[in-house]
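Lecture 7 notes: from sequence to structure.

We start with a single chain of 635 residues. Read the sequence below before looking at the structure.
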Amino acid sequence: MKKRIVCLTLALLMSATQVVSVSASREDELREEQAITSQQLDATYSRMDELAYAKSQLENEISELDSNLVSVMVSIDTLKGDIDNKEVDIIKTKQDLAKAQKARDKQYESMKLRIQALYEQGGDAAWFQMMLNSEDLSELLTRAENTQQMYEQDRKNLDKYVNTINEVNNLKTQYESDKAELEEKIGKVAFKSMELEFKAMDEKLIPLMQEENALTTRYDNLIASAKIDWDGETLNLSLLRPYMTHEDREIRRRAHEKYSAFFQSKAEELDEIYDKLVKNRTAQARLLGYENYVELGYYRMNRNSYGREEVENFRRQIKEYFVPLAEKMHERRRERLGLQKLSYIDENMYFVDGNPKPQGTPEEIMANGQKMYEELSPETKEFFEFMMENELFDVLGRKTKKAGGYMTYLPKYRAPFIFANFNGTSGDVDVVTHECGHAFQGYVSGSDPIEEHWDITMETAEIHSMSMEFFTEPWMNLFFKEEADTYRQMHLEDAIAFIPYGCMVDEFQHIVYSNPDLTPDERHAAWKKLEEEYKPHLDYEGDPFMEKGGFWQKQLHIYDTPFYYIDYVLAQTCAMQYKIWMDEDYKAAWQSYLKLCRLSASDFYTEMLKEVGFQVPFEEGCVRTLTEKLGVMMK
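Now the structure, written as tokens:
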């Protein structure tokens, strides 16, 4: 209000000063202008008052939202505290139950031995005969007293055994009650996962697990240490890969030879590391009472709704139905490349003038990724903006950077984080689609107050990533311009080619861990045999490392995360179901995908697939149906 008075006073003073030098008519004009100015000021101040009120209202709303958020966070923390406390109670009860059961079994064995001794010595008749054989009354009384003491001790042992049985039963009841209460809060899946964790871990494994970690780190460092001389430039394996898919076949050949030569130079060390890993993991399994590492490996992969038999049945169907489809695709690829025979240097080549490459700098690729996700859905728009604003990408390639790409989740901040190595190939776009599929699911499910629901199994997690690759295909023109259609064709063919390879990796690991005493040469021979079954078109042209069956040693999952790779294959099977579905009804397919992301780990893998409208890959007929539909799509 004071400002208003000052402004009006100044206006009046200015008007009064000017009156001396102007005519009466001019004075009237100035008075009119003054009135207009005064009205404008009044309107401005009125608007300022309105804005101040609106600001006050907005601040009140923000304060209320903050209060609600705090309440929600407190509720989440309280629930988490309750769950954590109940988990501690269950663990303690389970430990007490195990101790009581052990005591019961020990007491039972002691009583069995006592009864056995009694009968072997003739039972009651023997004791009576012993009394009659006493030489005098004193010895008779002594023997009678000893007999009474033994009887009383037997009675005490029996009472103790009965009490122990009661304790076991009470602890069982408490355990079942606590289990039911916790299942009510976090669901059966989380509880099943906890049980698998118990089966997969014991303190006595720690020294072996430390050794295992040191060996996998040694392998990772060995791969990252690669220094390939390329026309005077030093490249790591990741930066060499663009030349391995170069349109000039001789450049491809030279790149593949250098790639293979690096592994050949490290062959002995690679064999040594893996041999030690196999023996280490087998020792861990046997310490826990398992025959070999296969069973323990399944527990560690949290396979909570299927087992080895289902996986073997799935691989059988892939060999029967999918491998022939993949080989037809490779034959078409050979014709398209104009080759008489496909060589290993052509393995990832799809077009004679080179595979489609993304156009633009890494920064432009990320900017196009943001545009793509803004248009895909409101949920993906919010997600990608969050990732960019919080700098949750580390994707630029560096010469000494660790190989590979992945998404990890930072639970403290409820934020995904993506690590990768851009190298100028279509793989750069795969990071923006595949890894962002992982990250999007993590972002969507992060609001679930039950943290156990965040712990999704890998065959589910890879559906999120591989399916996002297909859902983003309509935007590939942003990255590949006029090559967008060829990229989409390459993407589908590459997905088809992957499935036999992924099954081969899985079957190889089952062979190795079921037969831990195989020599390095026998392992290489097993891989080579599998290549003949899953990839019969493959020709290594006498390459010394690859020809002996060494290709698997470049696959870090085989060294670092046993039995993980089949998860990719199972997920790709589901992603292809989405591909077929979205071509028929994109909106319905996307809603199903959103539902799957939000389900997270609240239900078992097989049940969630049915809930979102999928066939389960293990089921008879799933692979055959999928193969038939893909065959039609490829024509």
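The chain is about 75% helix and 5% strand. Keep this in mind for problem set 3.
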